[in-house]
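Entry 14. Ran structure prediction on the chain below.
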Amino acid sequence: MKVDPFSLLIVPQRELSRGTLFAEQSTTPTAHTMTLQPAHDPLRFGEAALRLRTLRQEMLTGNMVNADTPGYKARDIDFAGELARALAGGARQGGLGLATTHGTHLPGRPGQSEGPKTLYRIPVQPAIDGNTVDPDLERGHFVKNSFFTETALSFLGSTLRSRLSAITGQPS
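Output, structure tokens:
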């Protein structure tokens, strides 16, 4: 495979999808060195991942609690898609702004995001009462999400410790 030395990005797809490091090549003809830089700020990434994991944990808990509620629809979020949207800063806008027609009205907050898009799970075996919660499936998702939440918390703590170590000059 021939690579143009003046191309803007040379990125292996598997590295880009994990949000790790990517290689960026300089566009100047004299520079032939590759520089590595993080795709996202680790602190921002950790915060966004932890917020979304916590939200997903609440949704899965709600699903398990309502396993016997007639007509309840199991909810979830697309974690990878929402994390990418949060890191890209692409918060959905709330449509219409609020107009204040009286001096005592509080102004709305334009530009605030709606939050992650809620998805509804398609049942493997639908219930007669319209409930779409499969308790075994929800427990599996809950345990898996708990593991990933602990991992995200561990990575965020590690990032904070390394930054504190860099600031103070003392090993953590």
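The CA atoms of residues 46 and 156 lie 5 Å apart. Will compare against last week's run tomorrow.
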